[in-house]
């Protein structure tokens, strides 16, 4: 895996090209004068990698690996040196869901220059959110993420408030291989078997890097969802073993269960499809014919645990209110007529920028008038979900990537507390490529 490197880098940090004169540069970089507590090096490189089934991928990777994991502790000053070995169009690293200072956000042409072959860029930020995150290149992201330029960022909590005996990071991704498309947990495209002692508390850190939302089944035990998008749920209810849950593209859930006597079956996708990857946790002998059952209900974050308490409620007086009508139309892209994905009828870069001032309370309404779901991802801030389809949700929750299905409306809010220029876009990266991006800018 990606070992923290022990040497100092002769880095050349590019200054943000769009920093307006009125914004202090320190606000954009954060206070990074303290020495790093932990350092990593990620070398972007082409590499053929092989899945468990033997299928081969002409992958683009960090460090030649599928989904390398960076692990830090809450409070650490983290330094990550990105070196581009041979990715021709250049790379960056965006810390998805991690609300880093703007200059560290990894958006080429906006917060930094793209890192070309032979060049490097050093990211440095304080780990001020615990939990399960991921990172990926934001240069031509739909192609680069699909090919493998991503990994996980795990920040362990400061106090041992969350006790578990063993944790597994599960990144599901859809790979293009020499045997066709394969969905895998990391490089595991088959059902895996894991022996676990009864009574052990197991945590699954689940990350969806696929362009669409995915459903998961966990059976044989009742379980809890303890975090969503890295944000801890207060008093998570126990979910019955036939409860399926669905993760937005780019979203993360931490799932916790206590190993029973017997087996626990976990898989991606539908109960009938055994092409999808899964993990069977067993006590002493793996079950001969593990079989999944149809789920009886679907997890609903709008009524789970306790509502997140912050200064944002549906009765808040907002300083600004934005509306994002998500739509689609036919139009020219890449010289051909195809589907374009629109916000308020326009395609990036023609969608007007949302302007905010530091300290303001902002409400955004997503209205999906298109034919499919859109996982809406805001950089640099977490959103508090307040209303769904016009009605207050029972348990407002925090998210960085909210899946909005066709026909749905959501009201979300955030505090403008991270100055800079940020993207707000659909995390179906194909949709982002063909239009569905706007900018949020502090003036
Ligand atoms: Cu995970 Cu703008 O991206
Ligand atoms: Cu979309």
TrEMBL record:
Plastocyanin-like domain boundaries: 45-159, 340-443
Record carries keyword Secreted: no
Keywords: Copper, Membrane, Metal-binding, Oxidoreductase, Transmembrane, Transmembrane helix
Location of the region described as Disordered in the Swiss-Prot/TrEMBL record: 1-18
GO molecular function: copper ion binding; oxidoreductase activity
Source superkingdom: Bacteria
Full-length numbering of the shown residues: 247 to 689 of 706
GTP-binding recorded as keyword: no
Protein name per UniProt: Multicopper oxidase family protein
